[in-house]
Structures are given as structure tokens and as C-alpha cells.
Design a protein that fits this description.
This protein has 382 residues and is α/β, with parallel strands linked by helices. It folds into 2 domains: 109 residues, P-loop containing nucleotide triphosphate hydrolases (Rossmann fold); 247 residues, no CATH class. Helices cover 40% and strands 18% of the residues. It contains 16 helices and 14 strands. The strands form 3 sheets. The chain has a 6-stranded mixed beta sheet with strand order 9-10-11-12-14-13, with helices on both faces. A 5-stranded parallel beta sheet has the order 2-3-4-1-5. A 3-stranded antiparallel beta sheet has the order 6-8-7. Helix 10 crosses helix 11, helix 11 crosses helix 12 and helix 13 packs antiparallel against helix 14.
Length: 382
């Protein structure tokens, strides 16, 4: 496997490193930290050893020189180890702990709060286009996504198709997060119809043949497993009646494509458009995370129908971005951005499309989407 440099930056202190399976957390740690104790709780024999004797961690740690880093991989598999980590941090300041996790569910209440102030929380995301450089292909990214696990596979299409099934088996089924795996599988497909749109819980409940409260629980499971996220409506200094519900996205365009039903009644253009918007969304999330979460990501939609896909708001950033799965720009495509500009004259406007030319129409900068993604790095503003 060829190692590709990532934008993710190390921390001088202990930290949690969250990210879905396959985003490259372990690869990055082994590449950058070198020969350090690596306690992999995914390995059955390691899990058995530490679950039977959690204080083993103390023995391993105290055998290391002061200043040494100790990695515990997939800490959510055995959260009780955090008690030992906490004690070691309290008693000795000489070691640094890196605690990785692909699920925040078991750590929500006790884990992260337990180490608050002693361990920062960082996240790793799928590849950004700029990390892949010239090997990035927008067309491939829309089909197979940006997961390192998938991109490095011999057969990326088979890998992405297996990815959700692995999550279902290892994270959902084995952890006992849902009683009916069949209903959850139907939910995954139904939720994919809301990718890049407001999540309609009632419709999904009907399609999945489960109760509304069950669907709400399923959505929480997806978010806890870091497989999906929602972005809220931008409401600062609002002058209009706005939509009140957040938009929903799977965390990776390839994951979305793998669960999205496709048949005679499913328009390819509609699926491709949702995949493109999701690809931009995951890039903006990664860009913001690697910059230290200095901005917030929103969308904007009025009751009258004007909409902007993304609003990026921070101390030195205020930008509205619209994505269009088209090679030609029609004036009406700018209506949402122009309405937003009317309410927020301070905002910069940008439209991303599938064409090849940089254009400026009615003071809206129109950029080829692949050019925008390739140039999006944490070192630069949007």
C-alpha cells in the first residue's frame, strides 16, 4: 500500500482520534509515530487480555520511558480502559496517550468527559482531493468515494460494496445496537434518498416499515458510528422565514452510492447530483476539521424555496456555495445565491459545476468542481 501524505496534524498532548473505519487512522499513526506500543483492541487476543485484566495497561505504560506515546486502537471496544488511562494521567505526566475510535456511542457519556482537558478530540476524514493530487478523479470519487481503504483496494467497487456490510456485521450486529438488522438495512437504503436533503423521518419510517422513534434512534446510531452527519440551517440575522430542519449526508460519497437504490425509476442524474453535493460536503468538513474547527458549516433555505447548499461561517470566513451537477450554467441557477447575497451582502458567493471554465456571472464566481476540490487545503481559506 502506497502511503499518501495527509493533512491531519499531530497533537503535542494526549488526544482522541475519531474517524470511521477505513479513513487511515492506524496507517497514519504507524507512519508518524514509529515504534510505539500499539494496543489494538480489534485483535481478539488483545481484547481478551485487557478485558480480563485492565491494569495490564499500567504495567505496559510504566515499562516505557517518560515521554513515550502509547496508542490504544478502537478504545470504544473496551471503554473501561479509560479509567486506567485517567489514573495514569493523574499520577504521571510523562506519557502521552493516543486513543482511536470509530464509534462515539459508548464514549459519549463517560469516556470523553472523563478525560476532558487532558485529551483533545481530533478527527480523521476520508481523503481530500488535494491529498491525492493528480491521481484524483472526480468521476471516480463520485462512484467509489474517498475512503483510503477503498482507494487502495485492488477492486475499489467490490471494496465499497462490502464496506457497509462490514459495518452492519461488526459495529451494529455484534454490538447489539439494533434488534432487527433487516429493518436497519431497509432504513439505510431509505435514508440514502435523503442524502443532501432535509431528513423526512416520517417518510423513512413508512418506507422502512418501522416506528418513527425507531428511525430517530437509527439516525443517532449512524451519527455515533460516524457514518452520517447533519448540517443545520443558517439563521444569523435572519430576515425571512426559513426551513427549520437540518440536512442529512452519509459521510462519504462512495458509501452513499453503495446503499442508494438504483433502478428503472431512479434517475441517474438525480443520484449523481446528490453524490456531488455530498462529495463537496465531506471535503468542507475535512477542511474545517484540519484547520481546527474554526468555522461552522450550515445550509440556507427559505420557505419560499430559495436555497444555498452550504454556508461557511467563521471569524474570517463567510462564504455561500451552491453545487450543480451540470456542465452549463443557466441564470436561474444563481437565484438562491443572489437571494442570500441580498440578505447578507458581506458574503462571498461561489457556484461549483461540472464544466471546465472559471466564470463570473452576476458577481458569482463559478468554478469547475474538480478544480475547487483540488485546491481546497487546510492551509488556505475557501
Amino acid at each position: 500500500m502506497e502511503f499518501k501524505p495527509r493533512f491531519f496534524q499531530d497533537s503535542k498532548q494526549s488526544f482522541f482520534l475519531f474517524g470511521p473505519r477505513g479513513t487511515g487512522k492506524s496507517t497514519w499513526l504507524k507512519q508518524h509515530l514509529g515504534d510505539v506500543p500499539f494496543i489494538d483492541l480489534l485483535a481478539p487476543e488483545v481484547y481478551r487480555a485487557y478485558s480480563a485484566k485492565p491494569e495490564r495497561l499500567r504495567e505496559v505504560t510504566e515499562a516505557q520511558k517518560p515521554g513515550k506515546t502509547i496508542v490504544i486502537n478502537e478504545i470504544q471496544k473496551f471503554p473501561q480502559l479509560l479509567d486506567v488511562v485517567h489514573q495514569l494521567m493523574e499520577q504521571h505526566a510523562g506519557w502521552r496517550f493516543v486513543l482511536t475510535g470509530s464509534s462515539a456511542r459508548k464514549l459519549k457519556r463517560s469516556g470523553v468527559d472523563l478525560l476532558a482537558g487532558r485529551a483533545v478530540v481530533k478527527t480523521m476524514h476520508p481523503f481530500m482531493a488535494a491529498e491525492l493530487g493528480e491521481t484524483f478523479s472526480l468521476e471516480e470519487a463520485l462512484q467509489i468515494g474517498m475512503l483510503p481503504l477503498v482507494n487502495d483496494a485492488r477492486s475499489p467497487k467490490e471494496a465499497i460494496n462490502a464496506y457497509v456490510a462490514v459495518y452492519l456485521r461488526e459495529e451494529v450486529q455484534m454490538e447489539g445496537l439494533v434488534r432487527n438488522i433487516g429493518a436497519f438495512s431497509r432504513f439505510l437504503e431509505s435514508a440514502s434518498l435523503s442524502h443532501g436533503a432535509v431528513l423526512n423521518i416520517s417518510n423513512i419510517a413508512r418506507d422502512s416499515q418501522v416506528e418513527r422513534k425507531t428511525v430517530e434512534g437509527y439516525v443517532s446510531i449512524l451519527e455515533d458510528l460516524l457514518l452520517a452527519f447533519r448540517i443545520p440551517v443558517f439563521t444569523k440575522r435572519t430576515k425571512r422565514r426559513l426551513s427549520s430542519h437540518p440536512k442529512f449526508y452519509y459521510f462519504d460519497s462512495g458509501v452513499f452510492r453503495s446503499v442508494r437504490p438504483a433502478g428503472p425509476l431512479d434517475a441517474p442524474q438525480e443520484i449523481e447530483g446528490a453524490a456531488l453535493e455530498g462529495l463537496v460536503a465531506q471535503h468542507l468538513r475535512a477542511w474545517n476539521a484540519y484547520r481546527g474547527d474554526v468555522c461552522k458549516l450550515y445550509f440556507w433555505r427559505t420557505k419560499s424555496g430559495n436555497e444555498v447548499d452550504f454556508v461557511i461561517y467563521g471569524q474570517d470566513t463567510f462564504c455561500a456555495i451552491e453545487t450543480k451537477n451540470t456542465t452549463k450554467i443557466h441564470p436561474k441557477m444563481l437565484n438562491g445565491l443572489l437571494a442570500f447575497k441580498n440578505d447578507y451582502p458581506e458574503a462571498e458567493l461561489c457556484l461549483l459545476y461540472r464544466g471546465k471554465e472559471r466564470l463570473k456571472i452576476k458577481n458569482v464566481l463559478c468554478l469547475p468542481c474538480d478544480e475547487f476540490l483540488k485546491n481546497l487545503t487546510p492551509q488556505k481559506p475557501v
